[in-house]
Amino acid sequence: MVTRFEDLDTWKRSRILVKQIYDLTKRNEFAKDFVLKDQVRRAVVSISSNIAEGFERGGNKEFIQFLYIAKASAGELRSQIYIALDLNYVNEKEFNILKSDLNKISSMIYNLIISVQETELKGLKFKDAR
Length: 130
Hints:
The chain has 130 residues and is mainly alpha-helical. It has helices spanning 9-25, 28-32, 34-57, 60-86, 92-118. The chain is built from five helices and no strands.
């Protein structure tokens, strides 16, 4: 049973992606492109942050709303990695790995949305409200 946002595989996977993106944006020309670097970092942090914030809100409707925001941030980041590819900040292999990871995370978020919508458990019943 999920009792904390840290138990969610979706959050765990998005956390790993944050590290990958930060490592990638420290390199060469990407590091010098302050606008794109900052936007990419904000988008990737938004994914895990919104999953966590929505979970902590305690209600299903709010959780779902924040999951949709996280999913939108995954789409935003997917668009930005195309730009990074076009600007030669990432190579084709890196791009394909990131795109695949983002598609997987987006799918996981969507499946979590469906699961929360279909559950009979509501709000704080998902977790121990100590």
